[in-house]
Design goal:
Keywords: Membrane, Transmembrane, Transmembrane helix
Number of helices: 14
Number of strands: 2
Shape: elongated
Strand content: under 5%
Protein name: 4Fe-4S ferredoxin
Radius of gyration: 22 Å
Structural class: mainly alpha
Oligomer: single chain
Distance between the termini: 36 Å
Length: about 350
């Protein structure tokens, strides 16, 4: 852990800039080599471009016990974390989750689940889930829980964009950034062999694959909810839906991908090298992974056991997990996807002008 990550990142970046051995490894090094000196905005941008694949550390000749004692993935991880916490709105919530994320997530899930169990005594207005909790009640709870955190995240991103010196965004910048994010290009390694996140002598695409499973699983689940909303309001086709309906096909597929991806990331996180990450926030990282797994696993169980007496407790657990996910989005590791995308857009501005 560094007492001043910004100052230490500047020192290490100057040495890396002189060496240039890792030039082709990821987007960090071309962006680094485009500068002769590093302002705060440059270093924060580099930190958020870094995907912590750790290939550069394994290849570096200046790591400990060399007197230069380089650990670029580690110092960028700490600086990246600091940039998220400073941009968070309000910042105190970001710090609280990253320090005690697992306990905070579990407490919120349990608390919200108890409230949803109590709300089952309110009259329902439909079939399936809506027989337990009315559609209007769900809308009244989840619309503010979605919109307000989204607004807080918008404030955070605006702060971050200003800090890294972002300019006017063009369509070409977005296309370049989304293309990189969609393929997880920066987790492929400099030669396309993957990264050595677990073992410095072995390259693997496992981390890239698990990130893609989580990302596309989440997007499929979001698409399922969006399609169901359109069917409900535009075509007067309320839930529940059958297995071969579009919402179910999207949601079940997304839920399975999310379960597999989160379990894979949890395994990789426990096998990784903590000294090359931000050690103080591992609780928040594990908490976020477990939260996503609870959301997806409880959703799948709810679908499989929805016609049994387990419906009410499973629905309370699932809704509690989903509500916790929404409330914590601006402060959990979920926000890192938005910040990383912003860093990719900023890098596209550097490349494309």
């Amino acid at each position: 852990m560094y007492s001043n990550p910004l100052e230490e990142a500047a020192r290490q970046a100057q040495i890396c800039n002189a060496c240039r051995y890792c030039e082709g490894y990821c987007a960090v090094f071309p962006a680094m080599h485009a500068e002769r000196a590093f302002a705060e905005a440059d270093l924060v941008q580099l930190a958020n471009l870094c995907h912590n694949c750790q290939n550069c550390y394994s290849a570096c000749q200046y790591t400990a016990p060399h007197e230069f004692d380089l650990n670029l993935p580690g110092v960028l991880a700490e600086l990246r974390q600091e940039s998220w916490e400073e941009a968070a709105f309000p910042a105190a919530l970001g710090r609280a989750f990253h320090r005690s994320g697992t306990m905070l997530a579990l407490a919120l899930i349990a608390g919200f689940a108890v409230l949803f169990l109590a709300a089952r005594n309110l009259p329902g207005d439909g079939e399936g889930f809506y027989a337990v909790l009315s559609h209007n009640a769900m809308v009244a709870i989840f619309v503010p829980a979605f919109v307000l955190p989204l607004m807080a995240l918008g404030v955070s991103l605006r702060r971050y964009w200003k800090r890294i010196g972002g300019g006017r965004i063009r369509l070409a910048h977005l296309q370049n950034a989304f293309g990189s994010a969609a393929t997880m290009r920066n987790l492929a390694g400099g030669h396309g062999d993957g990264c050595n996140f677990q073992d410095e002598d072995r390259f693997s695409h496992a981390r890239r694959a698990m990130h893609q499973a989580v990302m596309y699983g989440f997007l499929l689940c979001f698409a399922a909810t969006s399609v169901a909303t359109v069917m409900h309001y535009a075509f007067d086709m309320p839930a529940p839906y059958g297995l071969f309906s579009l919402p179910k096909l999207l949601g079940v597929t997304g839920g399975i991908l999310l379960c597999l991806g989160t379990l894979g990331l949890l395994r990789l996180k426990t096998m990784g090298r903590p000294e090359l990450q931000a050690p103080d926030v591992r609780g928040g990282e594990f908490g976020f992974i477990l939260l996503l797994f609870t959301v997806s696993a409880s959703g799948l169980l709810l679908y499989m056991l929805g016609s049994t007496p387990a419906l009410e407790p499973l629905l309370a657990l699932h809704l509690g997990a989903v509500l916790t996910f929404f409330v914590l989005t601006p402060y959990s590791k979920m926000a890192h996807g938005f910040f990383r995308l912003a860093a990719l857009v900023r890098d596209a501005q550097r490349k494309l002008g």
